[in-house]
Every structure is written in structure tokens, then in C-alpha cells.
Amino acid sequence: MTFLVANWKMNPQTSREARHLFDMIVDLGRLKNVETIICPPFPFLSVFGSPKSIKLGGQNMFWEAQGPYTGQVSGKMLKDLGCDYVILGHSELREYAGESDEIINGKLKMALKCGLTPILCLGEREGEEMGHVLSAQLEKCLKDVAKNQIEDIILVYEPVWAISSGIVGSGKPCLPDDALSASLFVKKTLSVLYSRFLAEKIRILYGGSVDAQNAASYVKEARLQGVLVGGASLDGQEFSKIANSLNDLT
Ligand code: PGA
């Protein structure tokens, strides 16, 4: 199964537009080889009814279960709204909300406790050394995560320098060969932290300026288990093309 995650970020601006975009892509749920996961802003999670074949995910959540935490959303709330997944550790939250690896670790453990599959984003900034950053992020974000839960996590290699401004074609995507090297590095690190067996089983996706032209190369050439799409997921036609190109591969 290939994973296709749509990260809508802080778009669109009205529930009417969100519904319209969702209606354009809801049919992708019939694709046999692709699991499509839509991660809209929190207020729109409940406007799609209970889609059966398309999965829903949150873009963030809090590390505590409930209580006096103004502005936060719990894992249980996401579950209650039909989410199976939650994106964690996105570089934009690291940048704008000062999210640290320790905070992400707390959120990840709470997500697992709530029965959500964490989609954990990792990646270096421009000028940083990929291996150095990935090993530190993996070690800290996965601290105290039990061996038997590692398989429940999806990792995304999302180099910060590859993320687009939201406009299709505006970014600088990572070459499939480089995404493959990063994923091999992730597996090597996990085999030291856990075991070779688990490292081989973990699902790794690529994110950063994915569009209909390049999506399939990350699965075919980089041998990854799917892609996470930002800007191009806001264009129903482009996103459908991505989904179909992935479906045709397997
Ligand atoms: P992008 O965003 O596809 O627009 O580069 C990816 C992401 O940041 O989730």
C-alpha cells in the first residue's frame, strides 16, 4: 500500500471551499493501491461527514490528554472526529511555534495512546548536515517509544529546504536519489536504536514540493512508501493526478 498524505496547512478559508475541495477528491478512496489521508485544518474535520474510504488526519495535537490548555486539541478529540492519523513535528511548527524534539516526543506518545497513527516529519534545514539532524531528531522524538509501537509510526523525510511556498512548481524538490539516501540513513539509525528487523518494517514517505510530475519517482526510484503533499494537495485536479500516478505503479 502506498500512502498519500494531503497537508492542507492553513487552507482553504471557508468550510464551503473545504467541502468543495473534498468533493473533488473523495473518489480517490476507490483506488486500490493508495491510502489517501486528508489533513485539513481542525475546524473542517467535521464538515465531510464520515468518509469511508478516504482517511482523515489532524495537523497537530497536544501532549496532554485533557484539561486547562487554552487553544489546544487533544488526540481523543481527533479520534472522535474520525481521524486515524496525525501529522507531528512539521518544520513549520518547529519554526513558528518553537516546537522542540522533546515536545514532539510527548505528542507522539500521546497520539499512540489515543490510537492515532503519528506521521512524524523529519528533515534538515538548508546548510545543515542531513545525517546529523536526522539521527538527533529520531533519537529524541522516539525517546521511550516501545519497540512494539515503532511499526505503528509513519516517518516522513521532509527536508525543510524542499518545502514549497504553497504554489505548485515554486519549490526545489529533493532528488529521488537523495531521498533514498536519507531513508537508508533513517533505517540505519533505527536499526541501532531498535533492531534491523524493525528498521526494515518502518514506513518512510517523502515530503517537499511533491507534484504530479515527480510523485511517482519517490516510490519507484527512491523505493519509499508514499508522499506527503502540501501545496499541490489544494488543487483537486493536481492531487488526483498524483494519486492516480501512485496507484498505477503497483
Ligand atoms: P509542499 O509542502 O508540498 O507545499 O512543499 C509539504 C509540507 O510542508 O507538508
Descriptive account of the structure:
The chain has 250 residues and is of the alpha/beta class. The chain has a single domain (2-247), classed as Aldolase class I (TIM Barrel). It is built from ten helices and eight strands. The protein is globular and about 45 Å long. Residues 7, 163-164, 166, 171, 207-210, 228-232 line the site of 2-phosphoglycolic acid.
Q: How confident overall, as mean pLDDT? A: 96
Helix content: 25-40%
The unique ligands bound to this protein are: 2-phosphoglycolic acid
Low-confidence stretches: none
Q: Which architecture per CATH?
A: Alpha-Beta Barrel
CATH homolog superfamily: Aldolase class I
Strand order of the largest sheet: 1-2-3-4-5-6-7-8
Q: Provide the gyration radius in Å.
A: 17 Å
Structural class: alpha/beta
- What is the end-to-end distance? 8 Å
As for the number of domains, it is 1
Query: In percent terms, what proportion of residues is strand?
Result: 15-25%
Order of helices and strands: EHEEHEHHEHHEHHEHEH
Count the DSSP helices.
10
Shape call: globular
CATH topology: TIM Barrel
Catalytic activity: D-glyceraldehyde 3-phosphate = dihydroxyacetone phosphate
GO molecular function: triose-phosphate isomerase activity
Subcellular location: Cytoplasm
Keywords: Cytoplasm, Gluconeogenesis, Glycolysis, Isomerase
Question: Could you give a short description of this structure?
Answer:
The chain is built from ten helices and eight strands. It is an alpha/beta fold and 250 residues long.
